[in-house]
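Write out the 3D structure for:
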Amino acid sequence: MGGLGLALGLWLLGSSTAVEVERVLALVNGVPILASDVELAQIAGIVPKMPQEDEASYRKAVLEALIALELRYQDLVEARLEQRVSYDWQAAWQRVVTQAGGEEELSRKLAEQGFSQGELVRLVQRAALVEAYVAKWFAPSLRVTQGELEAYYRQEFLPRWPAGQGPPPPLEQVRPQLEALVKEKKLLEQVQTWTEELARRGEVIRYSR
């Protein structure tokens, strides 16, 4: 699907009726993110669809996720890290198969949209590579202070505790679970900072929002 041009719409010429070949939704350092890429990513379920989220909003979220993925992947390639980062391919692929409803349902969805399994494999490989890089180079350095834990307990945990379940447990009783949640939050913040820096250093052009 790559290499189909940089214009927002590519059209077959010399026909009495213009036929849209492919639509570029964004450029990431010259690499196009196509409308079909968004469709493929939706099949893969790389971005969970939130309750009450309409289709247009969901497609925008998927597009932004693909832009971020392309920025991160390009950074790994530039640093020559893509061959040095190992990842669990079977686990990554199985998540996609499960989200799609099984092998048969995944094959049906791909065929229905005109995609090959190889196209999906390449997308999943890139996502798994970036995920493994983040887990190896970002996650180990994360530390949760007592102050951060107490703040999360007061500001996030207590307000969300269901009233019908009685009094909330003390901090020490839920410390391991809250530490994991705070680490996940800090990890997401670090990845977002990394991505924003890559976007500032590079060029991201959005043709569709």
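The first strand starts at residue 9 and ends at 11.
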